[in-house]
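check these tokens.
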Amino acid sequence: MLDPVRAKFGLILVVVAAFAGGVFLASGMEWTSSLYASIFSQAAGAGSTQSLAELNESFISIAEAVTPAVVSIRVRQAAEIPRGGQIPDDVPEEFRRFFEQPRVGPEAGGTGFLIREDGYIVTNNHVVADAVEIQVVTMDRRQYRAELVGRDPMTDVAVIRVDGRGFPTVRLGDPRRTRVGEWVIAVGNPMGLDFTVTAGIVSAKDRSGLNLSARGADDGTRALAVESFIQTDAAINPGNSGGPLVNTRGEVIGINTAIASSTGYSQGYGFAIPMDLAERVADDLIRYGHWRRSILGVSITEVDPEAMEAFGLPSIAGAVVQGFSTPDTPTERAGLQQGDVIVTVDGEPVNRLNDLQRTVASRRPGEQVHLEVIRYGEQKALDVRLIDAGAPIATSPAPAPRVPVVRNGAPQENLGIEVAPLTPGEARQRGYSGTDGVVITGSSPGGALARRYGDPRGSRIISIDRQAVSDVADFERILRAKSAGSVASFLFERPGGQQIIVNVRIP
């Protein structure tokens, strides 16, 4: 007779095998609609009825605990023209009132959830933007007129409030503890189906808002400043916007806000704003009426293989400092330099841009953060005070994909550019900060530099690999010393004075 531990382990293996078999059949034969039935029936046949019943009860308990704190939001937006159209110009003034009719704006809707017992509700900005009237309906069918407390278009977070006390509220969780593969529940009001509950898993974390081809669950395509979306396959459709994404502990870990779709309806991928960011924004909206956004005041780009080589990095991770938002920022005064690569903030690793942006956004303006940077292979530590700004950290476009280039021999030909000496008159005309260096006068769209930088014509080359380029002879000498396949780190100045570092692999 098997001992209880071995028997239980064997039962788990049977259930896992049944699950894997169901997934395989569902994906290979498109039996998605019967996937859960297949899994549950096979697992139940293996003797795990009790476990399935417990799982079932846990979902029921979560839905019952969260749904009472979820609300349906209906908004009336400002109308552009009277309902009856424009009044003819030849109608006498004393008769015009007979033609006038009330302006009726379009209606829209979404979801929200109560975070405080005194009626404060979190939702999406795009749900309540341009609203002249906001109505809230609770699960027990009570209706309230809501007032707008504050909204932030950059993060798509808004707070509204209804009068009253003792409202049920949600529990907020820490999305940083969330793991890919966890079960989650989405609650909302999709397509007029009030208080709908859908389930799925966390498909991915830290999805970049700048790189998503995402549509708002209600109002079409839009770009957001969020750099750490939670991706889920729980069904999210128009009307779900502003609703909670809940983990199996009954904690809200995100606000459902966007779907990846070519039709405007769910095609399997939804995105939620992490609750730690949303909570931070909501708190500022309640206190100050706007989000007090913390920034370093730098423009940054991702680390790629060329940057790793050019900056002497141990791995493809970090955020490259390209410049500063304004002259003499606290960050620059603290010693941060162009070309530094930020690798940690307060001990938290910066693997990608969204790691840096998320950590900075979680702090308040005026707070001091500890940065570890790598400056061309040398590690540095800096203490920097964050500043307040109404815009997110600036980012530069991602480098274009690389394609093979035939090596032609001359440095200018290899890079696909033409350069000429910079004259003092041209330097003044273009607004350069100096008169030395060379200017790019021509560029091939398929050239190595254009594929990394875009059209570089009119840009001044200040240095290569931190070696000053005073004239064309310097340009030729430095590049001829580079071997094919190595990386050259260019410091460019665009017309107007903006400087940027571009790392190019020599073909």
User: Anything to note?
Assistant: The CA atoms of residues 150 and 285 lie 5 Å apart.
